[in-house]
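Severity: low
Component: inverse-folding endpoint
Summary: output formatting inconsistent between runs
Steps to reproduce: submit the following C-alpha cells with default settings.
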C-alpha cells in the first residue's frame, strides 16, 4: 500500500530531518557540531565570501551562534580533534570521517577515469609522470598548496586557469592518494592521506560499490525526510543508473518505503514509517548552499519557492541580487535577502529584500530582525543597515531599531 502525505506534512518531515525545530543545545561544543553534521551528512564548501564562507552558515542556521574555530579544528586539525574530511560528496564537501569508507569506490572510479570524473580522466591518462612528480613533492615537503608547485595560466580562470600541478593535485585528491590537510586562506593544502587520516580508516576494507551506494541513499533519505529518487540521487551526486538500481534493492529489502506527496507527480520515499511533527517552530536565514535547498526543483515542490543562484549572472540581469539568502519562518520560505558583510563599515548590509508572499506580518518581521541581529553579532559586525527602500524595508527598519 502507498501511504499519502499532505504537502504540509512533507515540509515538516523535511525540516525536522534537516535539524530545524529541534531544541538547541545550551552549550555548543565540538560534539554538538559533529552531531549536527552527521545528521546533515555533508556541509558544502564554496569560495564566495560575500558574507561568510558557506560551510559555516548551515550550523549557525540550526544551532545559533557558535565558535567557528571548532568547525575549523574538526575539519583541518591533526589528531583526535579531527572529525571531518574533505571530498566530493555533494560537490566539494566536509563529511564525517565515518563516511570515508563509503566513498572509496568513488576514489577508485577517479583513478580509472569513470563516473563523475571524466574531466580529469584524460589528464590522468596522459600526465602520469607529472602526477608522480607532484606526489613525490608532497611526500618530501609535506602539506603543499598548488601555488607552491606551479602558477596558473595568465588571464585564465576556473578549470582552464589551473596550473598543470594543480590538475595533478586534484587528480590525486579525487583518487584518494592525497587529502586536504588544512587551508591557507581558502587555498587547499594537500598532504598524503596516511599522514592526515586515521590509519584504521585507511586500512579498512573497501565497501563494495553497490552496498556503499545503498548506504549513501539511506543517508540521503535520513537527511531529506521525504524525497523523490532524483532528490535522493542528487544529495551525494550518484549516477541515475546506479541510484535507480539501488533504490529498487532498498525497496525490496524494506529499508525504504514509497509514499505519495500531495501535488508531486513522482513517487517519494521515506525511511521506515514517517513520524510527522505537529509543527516545526524555526526561523533561520539559509545559505545559498544549504542542504535544505540543494535540489532547486525540490525546493519549489516543497515550498513553492523558485530559487536560483545569480552570483554568475551579469548584474543588470539579476532579479534578486548577488548573494541571496532565503528566510525560513513558520515552515515556509517567506522572503529572500541579498546580504553582505561590509567590514569597512562594520555592518551587515541588506541590499535587497523581497517577500515571497504579498505581506509579512509584524511577528514575521520581528523574527527576521532577530535573525539579522544574531547574524551580525556572530560575524562580529556592530550594526545591521538596510541599503534598500520599500514599505517592507521601512517596517523592518522599525523592528531593528
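Observed output (run 2 of 3):
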Amino acid at each position: 500500500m502507498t501511504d499519502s502525505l499532505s504537502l504540509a506534512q512533507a515540509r515538516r518531515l523535511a525540516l525536522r530531518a534537516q535539524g530545524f525545530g529541534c531544541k538547541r543545545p545550551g552549550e555548543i561544543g565540538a560534539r554538538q557540531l559533529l552531531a549536527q553534521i552527521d545528521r546533515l551528512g555533508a556541509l558544502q564548501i564554496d569560495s564566495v565570501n560575500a558574507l561568510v564562507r558557506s560551510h559555516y552558515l548551515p550550523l549557525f542556521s540550526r544551532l545559533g551562534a557558535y565558535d567557528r574555530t571548532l568547525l575549523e579544528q574538526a575539519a583541518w586539525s591533526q589528531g583526535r580533534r579531527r572529525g571531518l574530511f574533505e571530498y566530493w560528496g555533494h560537490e566539494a564537501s566536509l563529511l564525517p570521517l565515518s563516511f570515508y569508507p563509503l566513498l572509496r569506490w568513488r576514489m577508485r572510479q577517479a583513478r580509472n577515469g569513470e563516473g563523475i570524473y571524466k574531466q580529469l580522466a584524460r589528464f590522468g591518462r596522459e600526465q602520469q609522470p607529472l602526477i608522480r612528480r607532484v606526489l613525490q613533492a608532497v611526500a618530501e615537503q609535506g602539506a603543499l598548496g598548488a601555488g607552491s608547485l606551479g602558477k596558473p595560466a595568465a588571464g585564465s580562470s576556473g578549470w582552464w586557469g589551473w596550473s598543470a600541478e594543480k590538475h595533478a593535485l586534484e587528480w590525486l585528491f579525487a583518487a584518494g592518494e592525497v587529502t586536504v590537510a588544512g587551508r591557507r586562506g581558502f587555498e587547499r593544502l594537500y598532504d598524503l592521506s596516511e599522514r592526515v587520516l586515521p590509519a584504521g580508516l585507511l586500512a579498512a576494507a573497501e565497501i563494495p560499490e553497490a552496498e556503499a551506494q545503498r548506504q549513501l541513499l539511506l543517508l540521503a533519505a535520513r537527511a531529506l525526510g521525504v524525497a523523490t529518487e532524483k532528490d535522493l540521487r542528487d544529495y551525494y551526486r550518484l549516477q541515475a543508473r546506479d541510484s535507480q538500481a539501488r533504490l529498487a534493492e532498498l525497496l525490496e529489502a524494506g529499508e525504504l518505503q514509497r509514499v505519495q506527496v500531495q501535488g508531486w507527480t513522482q513517487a517519494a520515499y521515506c525511511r521506515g514509517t514517517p513520524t510527522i511533527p505537529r509543527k516545526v517552530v524555526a526561523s533561520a536565514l539559509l545559505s545559498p548552499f544549504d542542504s535544505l535547498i540543494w535540489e532547486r526543483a525540490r525546493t519549489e515542490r516543497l515550498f513553492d519557492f523558485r530559487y536560483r543562484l545569480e552570483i554568475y549572472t551579469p548584474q543588470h540581469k539579476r532579479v534578486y541580487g548577488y548573494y541571496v539568502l532565503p528566510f525560513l519562518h513558520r515552515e515556509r520560505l517567506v522572503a529572500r535577502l541579498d546580504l553582505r558583510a561590509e567590514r569597512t563599515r562594520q555592518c551587515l548590509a541588506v541590499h535587497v529584500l523581497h517577500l515571497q508572499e504579498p505581506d509579512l506580518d509584524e511577528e514575521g518581521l520581528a523574527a527576521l530582525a532577530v535573525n539579522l541581529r544574531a547574524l551580525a553579532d556572530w560575524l562580529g559586525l556592530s550594526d545591521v543597515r538596510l541599503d534598500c527602500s520599500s514599505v517592507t524595508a521601512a517596517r523592518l527598519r522599525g523592528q531593528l531599531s
